[in-house]
Every structure is written in C-alpha cells, then in structure tokens.
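Researcher: Here's a chain I'd like modeled. Treat it as a single chain, no partners, no ligands.
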Amino acid sequence: MRAPSAVRAALGRWCLRHLQLLPVVLLVGGALLDYFTSPHVSAEAFYTAAPMTAAALLSLRATVLAGIGACVTDIALLTHFGLIGDSGGWSELAAVVTVSALAVVVNRLMHYSYLRLQSARRIALAAQRAVLPQPPSSIGPLRIAVRYQAAVKDAQIGGDLYSAQDTPYGVRCLVGDVRGKGLDAVKVVAVAMGAFREAAEEEPTLVGVAARLERALLRERARRTGPERTEGFVTSVLVEIPPCDDELRLINRGHPAPLLLHAGQVHSAEPSEPALPLGLAELGADQNRTDTVPFPSGATLLLYTDGLNEARNRAGDFYDPAAGLTGVEFSEPDALLDVLLTKVNRHTAGRVTDDLALLAVTRTTAAPRGGAHGLARHQR
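Model: Modeled as a single isolated chain. Structure tokens:
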C-alpha cells in the first residue's frame, strides 16, 4: 500500500501534466463558443485567459504561442462575423493583444522569481551543512544515522539541532530544540553547535560539556533585547558513549526522553529528575544530573525532537514512537530512521507542523566489559 503522501505527490504530478493543456482547451473552447453562438456573444474572456494560464504553467515559448494563437483566433472569428472593422471588435482585439503581451511579462517575472528561490534554497542548504554537518556513519563499533525534516516545505534548517563526534572521552552526541523561530533560532543553533563541538573535545565530563553550553547560551541571550530575551533556551539531551563499555551516560535538560531499542523491545530512558532547558540554569540549581543506562551490543539509542512525539493525526492523537517501534528489529540505524519517518508521515497524512530531528546510534559489537542490569542507575 502506497503512503498517502506518495499518492498525493503522484496525483499532483498528474494534475500538473493535464493543467498544462488548459491554454489549448481555453482557445478551442472559446473558438467553438464564438462560432456557434450569436455574433453579440464574445469569447474574449477565453482568449485572454489562455496566454495568462500559459504564463503560469508553461515556458516563454509556449506563452508567446498561446498569445499568438489567441490573437489569430480572435481575428478569424471577428472577420467571420464581419466585426473586424467595428469599434467593439477593435476593442476586443486590443484587449486580447494587451493581455497576451502582459502574459509574456508575467512569465518572465515568475521565471526570475523561481531562479531567486532556487538560489535561496542552495544558500539554505549550504548553511545547514555548515551549522549541522553530517556526522560520520560509523565510529568504532557504533553506527550513526541522522535525519532532519523541516516543517516548512523546501526549508533546509530550523530550530532543531543534532551532533555526534568522536572525542578522547568517547562518542558524544547532542540533540536539541531551540525555543523560538526564524533567523533568531538559527543563530542560537549556531551558538549551541559551536560550543558543543569545542566542549565535547575538551571537557572530561558530560557535566562540564553541559556547563559550557549553558554559559554560551546565556551570553547569547544577554545580547538580545525586548521579548527576544525570553527565548533562545534549548531543550536538549547530551549523550556520552565510552569507548570500552556497554553503557552510556545521559544528561536530559527538559527534552523528550531517548528510546533504547534492543531485541524488539523499546524502553524510554527517562531522567531520574526533571531539569530545566539549557539557558535557564539561573532559575534552578544543580540541573546537570547524569544518568547511566545499559547499552549492550545490538542496542540502538534513538534521540529525537518533539516534532516526532507531538506529531498529530486528523483526530488530534499524538504519535507514539515507542509503540510504533516495539517488536520491530533493525540491523542498521539508517533503516530504523527510514521506517520511523514513513510511520510518522503515515500517521500525520503528510501534514508536518514542526521541525523533526532524529539521531540513531547502534552498537554493532559486544563491549569488552560486562554491563549493568536494569534500565538505568543514576549518579551526580
């Protein structure tokens, strides 16, 4: 069964192909209306609509041909009824010629607008690659995959962020969601990503990484004025996967809890204590509590933003990723994310209302040391 979004895309392509015949249909329909009705009934509206429709749907050449066709058809019908020398006939022909000329101008304006849009998309894609670079697909025994789906069609970057990098302390990952929209959110993403990349390499503990991120975001917020000072905080999950261990460490700062998938089972790695998002540390003390979670061979850690668990269907029901993934096994994180996006898009019928970032990490070989038992244990 084809996904609803794929069906709509195919239907859209079919409609576009048939809409491209509309200028010809208008010209033929106008000519028949003119020929088989009273001389006092004019099909001027058809003749003017044909080149304008071509301007919106077709190329410059097709627009010019539609305009010429409209003028020639109008002249032929006016001559047939003996109205070519009449003041009304001249007025009608002048209107058709004028609209045909304007259609050419409109076609060119739309073409240049399309070129500017394509240029903006390329710039946005370059910005995304600079701010959110693609992490390596593998680091030692770990396989890594990411996906980003923007809420706005053709947008390339928003307020969600992700990163995964190899460090002297193991693989460290970040997934977060900036409070706010537009360029201000993108600025915060750039600040957070820059601070994380530097701190992940230098700080010996995950708490130190979180503290560096906190300070960077507070500096960024201090530069803002007015209502914007209340935005710019980031809900996030920080992860550290040591190189020789079968567990991982998490710091959750007000973000949806990651999911751990193993042998068809799905567990939510809930934080031991709730914490405020990054950038709001002054509102509460001791926000950086580290939770230790088993991460054996064959397990996958799924980090995501709230665009996943808050995706709604037509009835208003939220998507439940844990229920959707229970009982399903994946050999590679790329396959997991592909299936997950298909499931959530089917749930929402393709209606995306929020940005969505996904990061999956799979351990493919057994760690050399025995693992902890139970879902999680906690430490300061």
